[in-house]
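Can't attach files on this board, so I'm pasting raw text. These are the components:
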Amino acid sequence: MPRPLINVPKKVKRGDAFDIRILIAHPMESGQRRDDKGQPIPREIIHSFLCTYGGEEVFRAEFFPAISANPFLTFSARAVDSGQIVFTWTDDLGATQFDSVEITVE
Amino acid sequence: MRRLALLLCLLATVAQAAPRSGYDDAGPQVRAMQDDDDANPGFLWVQQGAALWSRPDGSASKSCADCHGDASTLRGVAARYPAFDAKLRRPVTLAQRINLCRTDHQAAPALAPESDALLGLTALVGLQSRGLPIAVDAGGPNRPFVEAGEHFFRTRQGQLNLSCANCHEERAGHRLGGALIPEGHANGYPQYRLEWQTMGSLARRLRACLIGVRAEPLAPDAPDAVALELYLAVRARGLTVETPAVRP
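---
Top answer:
Structure tokens for the assembled complex are below.
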């Protein structure tokens, strides 16, 4: 699975709100389709997503089968301190993946 | 005399009617997705292509970067494809050129059509020409292939007995069910189609069109397939490369 595309500003002023955008590569197979032989294709979606900033949870989402492939999320947070923004997501195969970016608050 | 001049003028404008990109027919959300490189899922493939670009492969243990340097040196290349290959004496598509590079110079096996690796490399090379006008060569040794492609484009086929031109020229801008019929210009391939929920090549799109009119889909390396891709590129001259485009 390729790495997600993450867009977070490198530097933010303390107290300012900033946007966090992430595009995750995932097939998000809904479980409602059948293959060429008529067999159901098992569901394989990301079911939970969590974002922490400086160790503190800033965004959490539950996903359902109607979410498209390669989901794109955008949300915002307020700049407190320089630190790591960590994204964690788990899919139906039980694989938990994570990625992170550094942010500098001045 | 004046009437004749007027008629000639009118004919000239019709002949020069600017092609309309599928981008202009897409909804504002789809256009926004394509315009924003962070929201455009095509860039997931570009990213994979960039990783493959510098990875040595094959028994020659050479990477794309070993010969070409940075991918940005290929600016303008994708705008010229399909291009004539003097050795094979026929035009080849960009994806076929990448595979020829692999087999001839890297001594590596060709990548499977529609594989993420091939789509990724093609998207990476295509991206370098984004914004440049399509500059495919319609003359010289390409001419008979352009003619063959146009012949295919205008030939009725399949159980529905429709030619490409029936829909994408005569009825472009009208609707098929709820969907708008675009002019069918291939200026953003490989592209991310929301319908596919993935990236795909022009060859895949053409297969879907042929299945749609209940005709025999073209084999991936059929001579007609490349001729048609070449004619479509000639037909799209005046548009700019949009790779990786997003379409509904």
